[in-house]
Design goal:
AAA+_ATPase, Rossmann fold, 6-stranded mixed beta sheet, alpha/beta, nucleotide-binding
Length: about 270
């Protein structure tokens, strides 16, 4: 496995920092099918770590094990140096790990603010909230607008618009903004630009850069090699359930990455 000695995009080389999220020798099997075969991974503060690999390489299984959607058969997970065990996605969310899946998981009928607070709705103060269980709609809309503004999302001016009226890129922005708002430790993005046009993809990539500038580490799963090499600090390459290499855009070219990913070259 290749571990690069420096990350030229970050202010500090990764090996001088403690990882915020670490997986050690994860194993996951589905009957006779091996999804993960002793995979280790480190995510450092303020970096974008891309995970790439061919279909069936174990990318999705790895991410699911990191976020509680799957429970590894073997191995250990550490968050900020402390061992953690996620039995369900909610456990990971409680610990500050937010995931944006490829299908977005937004509710089209609800407005932008309601989607940002979906599952985390806030009640009004006092008796109205405690007894009558009334939601603080005005407050949630104000905070949603503030969060979108802090992320530099200018395409969503009206947080009262139903998500079903938004474009694909705007819907993705809502999902990413929700992750950024509540992901205090890690944001995981699964194919965030799939089925988006060039302009909308660029907006999502800029959101990823903005999250990094805020110091929030991002795990990016993508098949789009140019986008990976555009925003990633390091690239974790999966092949046949194992980590074939961990490289950087500075140490390897896209051709090198594809060769390692397909087995045409060894790291």
């Amino acid at each position: 496995m290749i571990i690069t000695s420096a990350d030229t995009r970050g202010a500090t080389p990764p090996e001088t920092r403690a990882p915020i999220l670490e997986a050690r020798r994860l194993v996951k099997t589905f009957g006779r099918v091996v999804g993960l075969d002793g995979v280790s991974l480190q995510l450092y503060p303020g970096e974008v770590l891309a995970i790439i690999g061919d279909n069936g390489a174990g990318k999705s299984t790895l991410v699911k094990c990191l976020t509680g959607a799957e429970i590894p058969d073997e191995g250990e997970l550490f968050l900020e140096g402390k061992p953690v065990s996620f039995k369900r996605p909610q456990d990971a969310r409680i610990k500050g790990i937010e995931t944006v899946y490829q299908n977005l998981a937004v509710s089209p009928a609800l407005d932008v603010a309601s989607n940002l607070y979906l599952g985390r709705e806030e009640r009004r103060k006092g008796v109205l909230g405690s007894v009558f269980r009334m939601l603080d709609t005005k407050g949630m809309r104000a905070r949603a607008k503030s969060e979108l503004s802090s992320l530099g999302i200018s395409t969503l001016q009206d947080v009262t618009v139903p998500v079903e009226n938004l474009s694909g890129g705007q819907r993705q922005a809502v999902a990413v903004a929700r992750a950024a708002a509540f992901g205090s430790k890690v944001v995981v993005l699964d194919e965030p630009t799939a089925a988006l046009g060039v302009r909308e993809s660029n907006q999502v990539l800029q959101l990823i850069r903005d999250l990094r500038e805020r110091g929030l580490p991002v795990i990016l799963i993508s098949h789009n090699m140019p986008q990976v090499f555009d925003v990633a600090d390091r690239i974790h390459i999966q092949r046949l359930g194992k980590c074939a290499a961990t490289i950087t855009p500075q140490s390897h070219s896209m051709t090198d990455a594809v060769a390692i990913m397909t087995g045409a070259a060894k790291a």
